[in-house]
Amino acid sequence: MKKSIVFILAAAFLFGTMEVALKLAGSTFDPLQLTFLRFMIGGLCLLPFAIRDMRRRGCRLHAGDWVYLFLLGFVNVCISMVLFQVGLKWLDANLAAVIISTNPVFTMVFARVFLGESFTLRKAGVLVLSIIGLVIVANPPALMSGMSDLRGIALVLGAAVMFGLYSALGKKRVAKIGGFAQNSLSFILGSAALFPVLLLTNRPVVGGIELSSLPVLLYLGICVTALGYCCYLKAIELSGPSTASMAFFIKPVIAPIIAFTVLEEPVTINLAVGIGFVLAGSLLGFAKSSPKSEDAVCAAGAGRLECLDDGAA
After folding, report:
1. What range does the domain containing 67 cover?
2. What distance in Å separates the CA atoms of residue 124 and residue 132, rounded to the nearest whole number?
3. d(CA 304, CA 172)
């Protein structure tokens, strides 16, 4: 559990910087182009590590594995992150961070449906506290003031739903494929599926890549996408998708601070109160689980996947 907390916190920090970096890059790149570039960069950066890890594991990918990886990439890159990037045009970075952070709600549902993961009383408490905090931060009366906000909210909420599906599905074969390979190959396949869309819609592929825009693009591709997702998937390996999704209950604490520092987005009273509930939920989520609940997480899924020990790659 201690190692999983380290990976959860690392993923929360890296993901917490995502909206600000995407806002900065969004003024230069087309939304679909930026999604394509950052996941292709992230996937290629991880590829040497993926190959080495697969050789160490003696892992050979079969047709079903490639279909699984393509499905992961399609759900994450082509649907979830495209919806998120487009929706971000109409929302402040801190608000988008709050909405995308509701994805653990959907992860718990999908994990129950596809993996048979138990829904414990502790998880229910985490969910209630965290969702209360997220609602307070979002400030629903203020959100209903304009159609543009509602459009952005709908798109980013759709992204949260699909990311919840991605998180749950990511558990199914990670024990066989490994985190590096699963991330790298799904990112590359998802980006490859997005490439024809760029061509058919006459969107730029590499246009806009200049010395001034390269640093934020590389940060998004290497740090947020490659390293951030690796930390997140490692947390899934160690503790299950529902517990790993606690990164998204911590993210709303980090993202507004960064948005205020970089973009000067205001930190409101409802934001501060909501953060208190989010932290309370996170602390409850990190509380030591009983042996029975740990066994339930480790035995999730069809075929009852074996629980990976702390030394798993």
Report:
1. 2-298
2. 12
3. 10
What is the Cα–Cα distance from 114 to 256, expressed in whole angstroms?
A: 33
Residue 310 resides in a domain: no
| Residue 177: closest CA among 168, 167, 165, 185 | 185
pLDDT of the residue at 302: 33
pLDDT of residue 308: 33
Asked if residue 271 belongs to a domain, the reply is yes
Note the pTM of the prediction, 2 decimals: 0.80
Mean pLDDT by 10 residues, the chain (313 residues): 85 92 89 96 94 92 95 96 93 85 81 79 80 77 63 90 90 84 95 96 90 92 91 81 78 87 84 80 63 38 33 31
Query: Residues near 189 by Cβ (< 8 Å), separated by ≥ 6?
Result: 66, 69, 70, 73, 74
Confirm whether 304 is domain-assigned: no
DSSP characters over 30-81: -HHHHHHHHHHHHHHHHHHHHHHHHHHHT----HHHHHHHHHHHIIIIIIII
Give how many domains the chain has, as a whole number. Answer: 1
CA distances from 34 to 71, 117, 197, 266, 310 (A): 20, 34, 13, 26, 35
269 contacts 257 by C-beta, under 8 angstroms: no
Check residue 146 and give left, alpha or beta (phi > 0: left; psi -120 to 50: alpha).
Answer: beta
Residue 94 maps to a domain? yes
- Calpha distance 179→231 (Å, rounded): 9
Residue 188: predicted pLDDT: 97
The pLDDT assigned to 288 comes to: 55
